[in-house]
Amino acid sequence: MDANKKTGSRPTLEGVTLEMIITRLVERIGWEAMGAAVPIRCFTHDPSIKSSLKFLRRTPWARARVEELYLRMRSASAN
């Protein structure tokens, strides 16, 4: 199995900051949909970019889910 082929087929987040991810998700689907997809308090109760960044930087599992959501959204818009 070729390692380059495996990594080349998966979209990356290289050059995309967490703030950019959250901002684009908010613009595209809104806080309510984000809270439904990733049910965390910073998306469902008085959401803001600042509170979301603070929480996601400290919580790896939540950050991973938000990144997955962003990648799914990005790949869906590319199709």
So how many helices?
Answer: 6
The CATH class name reads Mainly Alpha
Percent of residues in β-strands: under 5%
The structural class is mainly alpha
Spans of at least 5 consecutive residues with low confidence: 1-7
Report the strand count.
0
* CATH-level-2 architecture: Orthogonal Bundle
The fourth-level CATH homologous superfamily is SAP domain
Give the topology string: H per helix, E per strand: HHHHHH
Helix content: over 70%
Radius of gyration: 14 Å
List keywords for this structure.
79 residues, 75% helix
Task: Describe, in plain words, how this protein is organized in 3D.
The chain has 79 residues and is an all-alpha fold. The chain has a single domain, classed as Transcription Termination Factor Rho, Rna-binding Domain, Chain A, Domain 1 (Orthogonal Bundle), CATH 1.10.720. 75% of the residues lie in helices and 0% in strands. The chain has helices at 3-9, 18-28, 30-37, 41-44, 49-58, 60-78. Helix 2 crosses helix 5, helix 2 (18-28) packs across helix 6 and helix 5 packs across helix 6. Residues 1-7 have low confidence and may be disordered.
